[in-house]
UniProtKB/TrEMBL annotation:
Membrane topology value: Multi-pass membrane protein
Location in or out of the cell: Cell membrane
Family annotation (PANTHER family): ARGININE EXPORTER PROTEIN ARGO, ARGININE EXPORTER PROTEIN ARGO-RELATED
Origin species: Cryptosporangium minutisporangium
Top-level lineage group: Bacteria
UniProt keyword Transmembrane, yes or no: yes
Residue ranges crossing the lipid bilayer per the database entry: 6-29, 41-65, 71-89
Keyword Iron assigned: no
UniProt-recorded name of the protein: LysE family translocator
UniProt xrefs under InterPro entries: LeuE-type
Chain segments annotated as coiled-coil in the UniProt record: none
Keyword set, alphabetical order: Cell membrane, Membrane, Transmembrane, Transmembrane helix
Amino acid sequence: MTVTSALVSFAAVAALLTIVPGLDTAFVLRTAMVGGRRPAFAAAVGIGTGSLAWGAAAAVGVSALLTASTVAYTALRIAGAGYLVWLGVQLIRETLGRRATAAARPETTGASSAWRAWRRGVLTNLLNPKVGAFYVAVIPQFLPEQAPHLLMGLALALVHNAEGMLWFTGLILAAHSVRGWLRRPTVQRAIDRVTGTALIGFGLKLAASPR
């Protein structure tokens, strides 16, 4: 397998993963609907940053440890589940007992909001062992023997990132086009409560998953 054929083949596999609705898509879409384009793109870049880390880890065998070690995988799974539940509770709590416009728009304060969205994107991705499982199962199959594994792992992750950014850009622009309606306090509260409930559900499902 050549480097070019590996990149092309992996792109086809990663494209399918990208368009399947999941936690990353829900997080970026919610950020776009409530916070606007800048925080949403920051969240997407954060998710991409996490993917790069997973790609590098998978290439050098760190992710294999998570697959082989029950203790390591369980620790990451519990940490990820706890983070998702905490994030979901925070979203729901912010819609209660406050003015709706203030509670439902935590990501609308300029550079600090973009940084917060990026950081949450990174943590959401890195604390999801399912992402690590995908990378460790797939990336080693696309590492040509003649290519440096670390660089090739990063290149494959960049391919996935590029596809993800195209997908997220479409979602962000679509959400922005109807943001006037989405800015209504009742709609914002509903978005945060639904998203928060979904995050809690993701967390509980992850915590209960044996592997």
